[in-house]
Amino acid sequence: MNQLSNHKARGSALTTLVGGIVILLAVLFFLVKLANSNYFSNVEETTTSATETRIMPAGSLAMGDGTPIGERTGEQIFNKVCIQCHAADGNVPNAPRITNNGEWAPRIAKGFETLFNNALNGFNAMPAKGGQADLTDDELKRVIAYMTNQSGGNFEAPAVGAAASEAAASGETAAAASPATSIDGKSIFDTTCVACHGATSAIPNAPRITKNDEWAPRIKKGKDALFKSAIEGYTGPSGSLMPAKGGNTNLSDDEVKAAVTYMVNESGGKF
Ligand code: HEC
Ligand code: HEC
Fold first, then answer.
1. Domain 74-150 belongs to what topology?
2. How much is the pLDDT for 251?
3. Protein residue whose Cα sits closest to atom 13 of ligand 1
4. Collapsing DSSP states into helix, strand and coil, what is residue 116?
5. Domains of the chain, residue spans
6. DSSP 17-41
7. At 160, phi and psi to the nearest 5?
8. Residues with Cβ < 8 Å from 112, sequence gap 6 or more?
9. Same fold, 74-150 and 185-266
10. Where is the signal peptide, in residue numbers (predicted)?
11. Which residues have any ligand 2 atom within 6 Å of their CB?
């Protein structure tokens, strides 16, 4: 009886010992794995991108993927910076919201240079560069073009990686090049004019597409008068403003004429 219990005790002591050794080996095994892993990051072995992110000046835009300053796309910048106030569902007073054509239309009508200068220097509650001081001029142009082009505008942005091209953003190049072969008035309407002339637009006095009665007195003025108003801009008797080329100075005269023709023909006219 006594011997039996002694035997049992020795057995369980042995089990404990073996178990202890197994656990010890397991712990050693994991310690060795840990020492060889990159858990404690080795400076020489980190990626360039991580290094770039680490050496960025304080307050600069950490894109996570280490995109260098100057090369960030409009979309990247929007989603990091401008979205704070210009989000589609934002509620910052007066900040025009992305994809909200009605809110952007009067801004777009100011022309790209004005928007750029106001975003660069600040404008009322709009902080200079949206508060992101390290944005380059091209980056700022890119993000303005990104925002406005999602909101009824049609601006050209400086390409990423290309040399700074002032002309591209200010629209000096875009239009003239292509001769008026097959201009699609509808697509111009859909990108530039719809913000104010859409069938459900709430812009005062802007004649709305498909509303024949709103267009009838305009159509009476004749084709040339309407082309002139649309190309050069026009202020109505009540002071409402039709901005030159709908605010999109990238458009050629022929493109504006095509958009007028499209609108008029959808609204009881025959140009
Ligand atoms: C802290 C909030 C805030 C941030 C961040 C911000 N904006 Fe704005 N932004 C505003 C407000 C408010 C207005 C409207 C100002 C007014 O018309 O009184 C505005 C207006 C603008 C306008 C129209 C200016 C005009 O002439 O009508 C542009 C363009 C613009 N923002 C671009 C940007 C860009 C690009 C960024 C990101 C780099 C950005 N904003 C980030 C608040 C912000
Ligand atoms: C920012 C708003 C806005 C945009 C964008 C806009 N328009 Fe207008 N447009 C107006 C307003 C407002 C009027 C009416 C002015 C008035 O008579 O009071 C008008 C009037 C017109 C007229 C009639 C002019 C006349 O002599 O009676 C034509 C034609 C016209 N727009 C064409 C266009 C075309 C083409 C586009 C796009 C390329 C365009 N508009 C984009 C606001 C806009």
1. Cytochrome Bc1 Complex; Chain D, domain 2 (1.10.760)
2. 86
3. 95
4. helix
5. 74-150, 185-266
6. HHHHHHHHHHHHHHHHHHHHSSSS-
7. -75, 135
8. 141, 144, 145, 155, 169, 170, 171, 249
9. yes
10. none
11. 105-106, 109, 188, 192-193, 195-197, 203, 205-207, 218, 221, 225-226, 229-230, 234, 236, 238, 240-243, 245-247, 256, 259-260
H helices of the chain, in order, are 2-36, 48-55, 74-77, 83-86, 101-108, 112-121, 137-149, 166-170, 185-188, 194-197, 212-220, 223-232, 253-265
Query: Model pTM?
Result: 0.45
Q: Collect all residues with Cβ–Cβ distance below 8 Å to 171 and sequence separation of at least 6.
A: 112, 155, 156, 248, 249, 250
102 in Cβ contact with 202 (< 8 Å)? yes
Q: Quick one: pLDDT at residue 44?
A: 46
Q: What are 156-195's pLDDT values in tens digits? A: 988 887 544 444 444 444 333 333 456 788 888 988 898 8
Q: Give residue for tokens 């812009």.
A: 203
Atom of ligand 1 nearest to the CA of 107: 27
Close Cβ partners of 78 (under 8 Å, ≥ 6 residues apart)? 86, 98, 143, 146, 147
Residue of the CA atom closest to atom 10 of ligand 1 = 126
User: Residue 80, Cβ neighbours under 10 Å: how many?
Assistant: 17
CA of 219 from ligand 1 middle (Å) equals 38
- Can you give the pLDDT at residue 167? 40
Q: Which CATH architecture fits 185-266?
A: Orthogonal Bundle (1.10)
Distance between Cα 254 and ligand 2 center (Å): 16
Name the residue with tokens 């459900």.
200
Residue range 84-103, pLDDT digits in tens: 999 999 999 999 999 999 99
- Spatial separation of the C-alpha atoms in residues 124 and 131, rounded to whole Å: 13
